[in-house]
Amino acid sequence: MNNQSRFLHGQRIEPPPIEANISIVDLIDTTFNAYNAARFREACHLFVERMLADDVTVGMSISGAMTPAGLGMAAIIPLMRTGFIDWIVSTGANVYHDTHFGIGLEMRRGLAGLDDRVLREEGVVRIYDIFFHYEVLLKTDQFFREIISAPEFQHTMSTAEFHYRAGKYVLERSHVLGLKDKSLLGAAHELGVPIYTSSPGDSSIGMNVAAKALEGNRLQFDVNADVNETAAIVYGAKKSGGKSAVLIVGGGSPKNFVLQTEPQIQEVLGLNEKGHDYYLQFTDARVDTGGLSGATPAEAVTWGKVDPDRLPDAVVCYLDSTVALPLLTAYAMNKRKPRKAKGLYHRREELVARMKEEATKTGNLAK
Question: Could you give the 3-state DSSP secondary structure of residue 311?
Fold first, then answer.
């Protein structure tokens, strides 16, 4: 048989039998040969071989109910502690539900097919097959209302500053209860990983902030600071001689927010840039509906969000994020040594000042 065609240079599909003691790395590298399994193998290779290089700054976006399923403590905290995630954009809901674990409240496995009217009568709330008591919501609401009454919250701040300050209180409660690494909010505070929320009013945290405003509380979220700080993180990474990567879990507003950093740099501020270097997304959204979550990295090139020269270093894996994220984390832990944490939260002002100075030189910002 003549196999000289340029299209027949791929590795031969001939995996060994799966054995009881097979490692996660060998399982993925040898048996994930086609279809979305192959895309996931490519995703793992992109993540560990390129995105986790020392000179790459990795931003992560999180949508969908990831933290209620325990993926904050199982996957995201380990990724932060090994220096594999440098900054995060999350829905407010993921931060809110993450807090349950940090203050000692419980989420439990359940069944999706039960009668929701009966659950409601018994005070049980569900997120598909995750069950918890209604009191969990009330106690978490009370926790946030108490902390945002403190003097340090009585001013306008970015969501990163809010989460950093809130993380301190979550950590204190965790320590009192003897809990360790249950909350990504607490871990982010320790590590200086900034967490942004693209729609801060769209969650129970935002609802409680709004309620306290009725009493005269002065906490306000500065969305302008969020836009500028995230753009400055990316600009700083690129202008220091490094690269920028995005790990997109799901889609929605956090996906756009982590990607719009490049149009903010190029289109709005007039700075010379080409887009993110590496793009990895897990999604179950279709491309043809016109929705953001199905938008491909090739489409993002047209917006300036992804560097066209780096388009081969972009992988979209059509896979449930609750399956993909634990597997990706395990693969990375086995293949890559920890990186030094960048502590970007503590560099925000410096990075914004540098970006502002450069944008002023272009004439897009007044002196």
Answer: helix
The single-letter DSSP state of residue 306 is: B
Q: Does residue 2 lie in a domain region?
A: no
Q: What is the pLDDT of residue 344?
A: 98
Q: Which residues of the chain have pLDDT under 50?
A: none
Which range of residues forms the domain containing residue 172?
A: 36-360
CA 2 to mean position of chain CA atoms = 47
DSSP per-residue codes, 132-184: EEHHHHHHHHHHHHHHTTSGGGSSEE-HHHHHHHHHHHHHHHHHHHT--S--H
Domain of residue 250, CATH code: 3.40.910.10
Instruction: Detail the DSSP E strand segments found in 22-172.
Output: 56-62, 87-90, 108-109, 124-127, 130-133, 156-157
Alpha-carbon torsion, ordered 258, 261, 263, 265, to 10 deg: -170
Nearest to 62 by CA among 38, 82, 85: 85
Determine the pLDDT at residue 308. Answer: 75
Active site residues: 305
SS3 content of the chain, % helix, strand, coil (to 5): 55, 15, 35
Residue 22 covered by a domain: no
Beta-bridged to residue 58, according to DSSP, are 245
The predicted pLDDT at position 287 comes to 77
- Structural domains counted in the chain: 1
| Tens of pLDDT, residues 271-315 | 999 899 999 999 987 777 766 666 666 676 777 777 777 767 788
Report the candidate in 12, 195, 205, 207 with the shortest Cα–Cα distance to residue 92: 205
CB atoms within 10 A of CB 135: 11
Question: Given this model, what pLDDT does residue 293 score?
Answer: 67
Q: Name which of 206, 198, 202, 301 is nearest 253 in CA terms.
A: 198
In angstroms, what CA-CA distances link 349 with 26, 206, 230, 266, 283? 44, 24, 11, 20, 33
